[in-house]
Amino acid sequence: MLSKKSQYAFKALTYLAEKYKEGPVLISEISKKKKIPLKFLENILLELKKEGILDSRKGKGGGYFLKKDPSKVKVATVIRLINGPIAMLPCVSLYFYERCKDCDEKHCGLHDMMIEVRDATLNIVENRTLKDLLV
Amino acid sequence: MLSKKSQYAFKALTYLAEKYKEGPVLISEISKKKKIPLKFLENILLELKKEGILDSRKGKGGGYFLKKDPSKVKVATVIRLINGPIAMLPCVSLYFYERCKDCDEKHCGLHDMMIEVRDATLNIVENRTLKDLLV
DNA sequence: TTATTACCCTACCAAATAAGTAGACTAAAA
DNA sequence: TTTTAGTCTACTTATTTGGTAGGGTAATAA
Q1: With contacts defined as CB-CB under 8 Å, which chain B residues touch A88?
Q2: What pLDDT, on a 0 to 100 scale, did the predictor assign at position B105?
Q3: Is B63 helix (H, G, I), strand (E, B) or coil?
Q4: How far is the CA of B40 from the C1' of D13 (A)?
Q5: B1 interaction partners in chain A (CB closer than 8 Å)
Q6: Would the pLDDT of A105 be above 70?
Q7: What single-letter DSSP state applies at residue B126?
Q8: Strand C bases, protein C-beta under 7 A
Q9: Shortest CB distance from A113 goes to which of B35, B120, B132?
Q10: What is the three-class DSSP state of A25?
């Protein structure tokens, strides 16, 4: 399951995608329009900025805006940044890999199946961007 | 991500699948062989029994055993029982559906994409059984 | 140059969930 | 009737999630 934080992130990002190239958008505006707790949203946006997805301007006329074109921001990237691993097991994760203890990956049916699940999921989320989320 | 509990459940179930039709297996044996905390495993097995996947016998010579053939126990079923929803959002879950608040499912790109992800995942886990987990 | 605006940053808190434990109870055999 | 082994209720503890508080800092414009 995606955390609420992730859902908030996607709402905020699609909002900013709609307003791409229209200048900075206030946190408070996003908060109001998308019904996301203001201070929580601040944290999320700041994180997305540090990761290079958003940029911001301070002072009057300031706010947040997408750093890249919406079609360049992959859904998979956002999930990994805010939510964490996409795979269902650490031992099959590409970006958050951890070795199984007490279990031989070479002889584990669950492992093999979870690789398939991971790839099926990646096949979708790696090939979709913020642009695709706009209806 | 699958919880540790789910991973324990799968380890225990594949162990029992290997010993299918060989009579009851002690909780303590599974605990030892699969390195699962004994009391925690008790809870898990009991849950799986209540859900109709396992059966048990008390007293000497007792233990747990699969109620059905390993090829009849779907991976999807086990995940739902022990881990919960397979979908990434409540609003696209088949068995744990919850309506999105503040969001129109008819006009939500994330929603649509998550249905695809769900179906891609289900296509795998609904068509695999404990038997497939044995290497 | 100073007031205002708006993001930046650190730290904290409460609720929920995950992970694991304790101990008494009950049923089946030997 | 003793031993064995699962059943059941109820904890405890650790981690994660979802948020809040409040001062700091940078940019803008009067």
Answers
A1: 1-2
A2: 66
A3: strand
A4: 14
A5: 84-85, 87-90
A6: no
A7: T
A8: 4-11, 18-23, 26-30
A9: B132
A10: strand
CATH number of B4-66: 1.10.10.10
Q: pLDDT band for B122, please (50, 70, 90 cuts).
A: very high
Residue nearest C7 (alpha carbon to C1'): A58
Show residues of chain A in contact with B98, CB under 8 Å: none
State pLDDT tens for residues B28-86: 999 999 999 999 999 999 999 999 999 999 999 999 999 999 999 999 999 999 999 99
DSSP structure string for B12-35:
HHHHHHHTTTS--B-HHHHHHHHT
Separation in Å: D25 C1' and A58 CA: 10
For A122, the token pair is 């990646």
Q: What is the rounded CA–CA span in Å between residue A116 and residue B125?
A: 10
Pick A124's closest partner by Cβ from B14, B116, B134: B116
Could you state, in order of their start, the residue ranges of all structural domains in chain A?
Answer: 4-66, 73-133
Tell me which residue of A29, A133, A32 sits closest to B89, measured CA to CA: A133
Mean pLDDT over residues A3-19, rounded?
97
Q: How far apart are CA A104 and CA B14, in angstroms?
A: 14
CB contact under 8 A, B84 and A1: yes
Q: Does A128 touch chain B (CB under 8 A)?
A: yes
**Are the beta carbons of A82 and A108 closer than 8 angstroms?**
no
At B130, list the tokens: 């404990």
Letter for the amino acid at B89? L
